[in-house]
Amino acid sequence: MDPRESFTIAARSIRSHKLRSALTVIGVVIGIASVVAFATFGASVESEIVGSISDSGANNVYVLGQPADEEGFEQALQPVFTEYDIARLSEIPGVEAVIPRGSIPANSVTHRGETVSIQGATATTPAAVTNETLVAGRSFRSGADETVLNRAAAETTFEGNVTVGDEITVRRTDETWNLTVVGVVNGTAGELPVGNFGPQPQFYVPADPYYQAVVESPGANARQRAYPQLTVVAVPAETLAVTERVETYLREESDARHLAPSGVDLVARTSGDFAEQISDVIQQITRFVTGIAVIALVVGAIGIANIMLVSVTERTREIGIMKAVGARNRDVMELFLLEATLLGAVGAVLGLPLGLAVGWAATRYAEVGFAFAPYWSALAVLVGVLVGVVAGLYPAWRAARVDPIDALRYE
Amino acid sequence: MGQADADDVVTLTDVRKTYDLGGTVQALGGVSLSLPRGSYTAVMGPSGSGKSTLLNLVGGLDTPSEGRVTVGGRDLSTATEAERAAIRGSRVGFVFQTFNLMPRLTAVENVAMPLVFDGWDRSRRRERARELLSEVGLGNRLDHKPTELSGGQRQRVAIARALAPDPELILADEPTGNVDTETGERIMGLLGDLHADGHTILLVTHERRIAERAERIVHVRDGVVERTEELID
Fold it and tell me: Torsions phi, psi of A224, nearest 5?
């Protein structure tokens, strides 16, 4: 039958029951809006985090030990990368620097008589502090009683700000260090991207003399410092090639391959790998949460089905009349299906902007950039239409099967 | 009667109809009848005699359990649902006792509705509907909804609707049953005019006075034709 006429009839029947049509549509709006909101928020968080990872050191190759049965960021903490390994890695073509990183347990830090407890300090080399990350001062020197703080440590840990030139005292179980603050940084080179999210206070100290994890290096035949993690800074254009070379070295020549306990794999990861893994995790969470929102959409669909069944019953006589004047079962089916589809489509068209608005508000609240995915818009409308079609199928089929003789007798 | 004639609009050949309502109920028990083109036939009988079933079969709303029903040469007993719908929409026009207008549609839209299913385009549908409404004297009620019309006016809309696809046959089921006597007279006058214009009419009624407006009366009782009475004007 004439599609325009079908549309007119369906629209008129929706309009003739304004309140209940509106309530039904609201059900779909809520469903579509929650799906869009969660999906948008997830996509925004993902793009924010992935963006920040990619920004920070795309040319960093992170070398670490990883339990063989783990994916993601699980990191073995045994110090297995020796100074011999660091020296050998530095000789690999395309490598600009190798920055080790180890943690030193500590109990507290005192600044101008104020003492706060800490987890520990981070031991690294002066190269970790670069001009790009320095906010004030300079890097520490190896062998000196100096320290560099990140902004969280300098600005929020103590009542008063810690400034360059101040003295701090770090207490460990068996010793006390008096250190001079020589620099404040906003992150350090070669930091694992996963560590960046929360602004945790960090105290950086030179590995020499403060880092004391020492092992027997098979390569150097001497006792050397060993670290749980290294960052190889590559010439940007060669990052991938360097990653492969580093992996080959780890597998075939490193001290670490001897020192790593069984069940720990030595891996070289780029920030792209991390971004990918984080994306996977966020996408899984987003899918899960969006899946829950889909429940709201299903409820909306049931609302449509319910109201359409009521409508079929109410209009039994009209169906009979239409059949008496020549409507085929198909025409009747089409009309009711169209009506349900319209309800779904209107719900989708209204739910989409609402969902985007809620998603946007959530990104403001979480302080991440809003990522608008245009295909979500199309998908939302499509899903709304589909919801209408699916919800309308059974009622429409019931309508099509109405016996005109009974229907015309129906009061 | 019962002999197939090329110029018969409708022929029923030994038509039986049984319903399964717990037990088997026989509504029609072997009816043969033919309606020549341009004829005006009244089917009369008490309620439960099977006259409505007969009308439903001829109108393609129902299918016979046995026997053949042909309308315009088309055998309805072998027609698919869609084919019967097409016959209802284009070859047959129904006029019901309770009018059966679509409540949300205007007079013009009601009259144009069969043409929607018959595939006419919009402007032609409207034009045809306006013409017909003017013919039945409702040229000034085109955009009124059924609730804004009197019983007699509604039945005239229904008659205009029945005429819309220019059907070969008009089926009227107690068309005066829901209107007062004077309005009923006018409705019957309108049907008489249609007959005079060459339309074939099958009227179902239980009132002798109404049945007498036809050319002949087929008396139905207990699902069979009791007798046929030819009326001379």
Answer: -140, 160
Contact B65, B18 (CB under 8 A): yes
Helical H segments across A56-155, by residue range? 83-90, 151
Q: Which residues of B touch A (CB under 8 A)?
A: 56, 59, 61-62, 81-82, 85-86, 88-90, 94, 96, 98, 100-104, 113-114, 116-119, 121-122, 161, 165
Burial of A105 by CB count in 10 Å (0-12 exposed, 13-18 middle, 19+ buried)? exposed
Domain ranges of chain A: 3-52+277-409, 77-260
Residues of chain B with C-beta less than 8 angstroms from the C-beta of A317: 100
Q: Is the link from the previous residue into A100 a cis peptide, with omega within 30 of 0?
A: no
pLDDT per residue, tens digit, chain A (411 aa), is 778 888 888 898 899 889 999 999 999 999 999 989 988 888 888 888 877 776 666 788 888 888 877 655 566 678 889 999 999 999 999 898 899 988 888 888 998 888 888 888 888 888 888 877 788 888 888 888 899 988 888 888 888 888 888 889 999 888 888 999 999 888 777 676 655 445 678 889 998 888 888 888 888 888 888 998 888 988 888 888 898 899 899 888 888 888 888 788 888 888 788 788 888 888 898 889 888 888 888 899 999 999 999 999 999 999 999 999 999 999 999 999 999 999 999 999 999 999 999 999 999 998 888 887 777 777 888 888 999 999 999 999 999 999 998 888 765
Residue B167, token pair as written in the block: 């059907």
> How many other CB atoms sit within 10 Å of the CB of residue B142?
17
Cβ within 8 Å, pair B117-A331: yes
